[in-house]
């Protein structure tokens, strides 16, 4: 069972620790990470989320996950990359895009740190965690922006996060 540190709106730990399901059920703020993985061809790697996921099942999404209780944010990012993609990253491989983006909603409120890294592996060379993902694929960033803005959006991107994709085009 995964336990999360509950945090305040500044991202500071409150001292409360809950299992992930309870934290989500009670809509408690916690840290999550997202890593935009790009390649030398101006593409971004997206994962097709498993249909058994609570949020955004079956949608294309960047690598993301929770920061476990007591874990450093960068270490969580490296752990998630290894678990979901078989990708060995070190904290030095991660470049911060957003330090702490607060997302207060009716459900799944969180504070997210956004990173990017560069990797030129072929999509078929990743070892995917099958209980989390069904596929990975490289997409042109402009294509992802179009999908995110479409009425039948097949991605986990919301319109208010498209600016992060626009940033990726300039890197």
Would you mind describing this structure in some detail?
The protein is an alpha+beta fold. The protein has a single domain, classed as Nucleoside Triphosphate Pyrophosphohydrolase (Alpha-Beta Complex). The protein has 4 helices and 9 strands, in the order ββαββββαβββαα. The chain has helices at residues 20-25, 73-85, 141-149, 162-169; strands at residues 3-7, 13-19, 31-38, 43-49, 60-61, 63-66, 95-103, 110-118, 133-140. Strands 3, 4, 5, 6, 7, 8 and 9 form a 7-stranded mixed sheet that branches. The protein has a two-stranded antiparallel sheet with strand order 1-2. A hairpin with a 5-residue loop joins strand 1 and strand 2 (13-19). The chain is globular, with a radius of gyration of 15 Å. The mean pLDDT is 93.
Topology of this protein?
Elements: E1 3-7, E2 13-19, H1 20-25, E3 31-38, E4 43-49, E5 60-61, E6 63-66, H2 73-85, E7 95-103, E8 110-118, E9 133-140, H3 141-149, H4 162-169
Parallel strand pairs: 3-8
Antiparallel strand pairs: 1-2, 3-4, 3-6, 4-5, 4-9, 7-8
CATH superfamily annotation: Nucleoside Triphosphate Pyrophosphohydrolase
> What's the total number of strands?
9
Main sheet characteristics = 7 strands, mixed
Radius of gyration, rounded? 15 Å
Task: Name the helicity range.
Answer: 10-25%
The CATH class name reads: Alpha Beta
Strand content: 25-35%
Please report the number of helical segments.
Answer: 4
Low-pLDDT stretches are none
| CATH architecture annotation name | Alpha-Beta Complex
Distance between the termini: 37 Å
Instruction: Give me the secondary-structure category.
Output: alpha+beta
What string, H for helix and E for strand, traces the elements in order? EEHEEEEHEEEHH
- Domain tally: 1
Mean pLDDT: 93
